[in-house]
Write a structure and sequence with these properties.
The structure holds two protein chains of two kinds. Chain A is of the alpha+beta class. Helix content of chain A is 37%, strand content 26%. Chain A has one domain. Chain A is built from four helices and six strands, in the order E-H-H-E-H-E-H-E-E-E. In chain A, helix 2 packs across helix 3. Chain B contains seven helices and six strands; from the N terminus they run αβαββααβαβαβα. The chains are: A alpha+beta, B alpha/beta.
């Protein structure tokens, strides 16, 4: 194997409890603050669809206003329950309703560090620059 | 007083039964280079005789919302009149240097990147005004990208009917089954907007879905 120079990378884990009580704007602000600090966020759980679009909107506005910022790479991985039995699905649905979808993981990284994320239902590949 | 109430009541009833229904708004959404404008052009040329916008191999060619009013499609004695809204492709990153790799000069690339970011914000803002949305995906690419899931998730949250189009089925790498597997709860129609393949299936699906509006 050829030797390759690997640059440092910081993954910041964000437990769901840290954003649970925040409103949508505060959640997005918190995530973007970490991203602007050149870190990759690993969030326990996932954002609501409207929060994801808000994150994209804010990201687009920031591209024009923050020098060197080129946007984000974003992916969510969650367990596939399509083949699961009725009782598992019911248990899963109940847990989701009570606690939010905490069994998913959201990975968001600055596009200047993360080149690409490729997802298929069971695998996530993260390509760095 | 009683006369006033009676007048307003009859006016309401009258408008309920006799008001001309406004045309529905059909939005074309998806990631960049999925073929939204190519499909919009195909439909507009087929039914109105003129195209809606320019297409290009370079991503983010459409950077502003484009409309075509009163597009009327007909299929098997059924018809649908709608306002077609072609939107800029939604992405999470824009790098002007990517445009420079496609032989674009720096200033031109920077201008395109700036307009593309504004176009994405515009696309998202318009989501609330749609009655029905066609999500256009490139059938030769991985459908599991979060942008696709975010678009569909937002439409579901807003209770807007969705039709997923697997475009570019004329390409060797195209895999419509992959798109069906990624969006099992939705109707998926495989077409080639460029070659005009399976357009009847598309018209049939959109007429069927319009009943839900």
């Amino acid at each position: 194997m050829s030797k390759k120079k690997i640059k440092g990378l910081t993954l910041q884990f964000l437990p769901y409890s840290e954003i649970a009580k925040l409103n949508s704007i505060e959640r997005i602000k918190k995530l973007l603050r970490i991203i602007l600090d050149h870190k990759v966020v690993v969030l326990q759980g996932k954002l609501k669809p409207e929060e994801e679009t808000r994150l994209i909107e804010d990201t687009m506005i920031m591209i024009g206003n923050i020098k060197g910022f080129k946007g984000v790479e974003l992916e969510v991985i969650s367990p596939d329950t399509s083949d699961a039995g009725f009782f598992y699905k019911m248990k899963f649905g109940l847990a989701k309703a009570l606690t939010g979808q905490q069994n998913a993981l959201t990975i968001i990284g600055p596009a200047t560090i993360v080149k690409e994320m490729k997802k298929n239902p069971k695998k996530l590949e993260v390509m760095m620059r | 007083m009683v006369i006033k109430i009676w007048r307003s009541f009859t006016k309401r009833i009258f408008s309920l039964f006799f008001k001309k229904r406004k045309d529905i708004s059909v939005g074309f959404y998806g990631p960049p280079n999925g073929g939204k404008t190519t499909l919009a052009n195909r439909i507009c040329k087929d039914w109105t005789g003129e195209e809606i916008g320019k297409v290009s191999k370079i991503p983010h060619e459409t950077r502003h919302i484009q409309f075509k009013e009163e597009v009327e499609i007909k299929y098997k004695e059924k018809s649908l009149k709608f306002k077609l809204i072609d939107t800029p492709g939604i992405a999470t990153k824009i790098d002007y240097e990517d445009f420079m790799k496609m032989k674009m000069k720096k200033k031109e690339a920077q201008k395109r990147a700036k307009e593309a970011t504004q176009g994405i914000v515009e696309s998202i803002k318009w989501l609330d005004d749609m009655d029905l949305v066609v999500v256009i995906l490139d059938a030769s690419k991985n459908p599991y990208s979060q942008v696709n899931i975010t678009i569909v998730g937002n439409l579901v949250a807003r209770k807007i009917p969705v039709l997923v189009v697997a475009n570019k089925i004329d390409l060797k790498k195209a895999d419509i089954k992959k798109i069906e597997a990624a969006f099992p709860e939705y109707d998926v129609v495989g077409i080639s907007a460029k070659k005009g393949k399976n357009m009847n299936d598309f018209y049939e699906s959109i007429l069927k879905l319009a009943k839900k509006v």
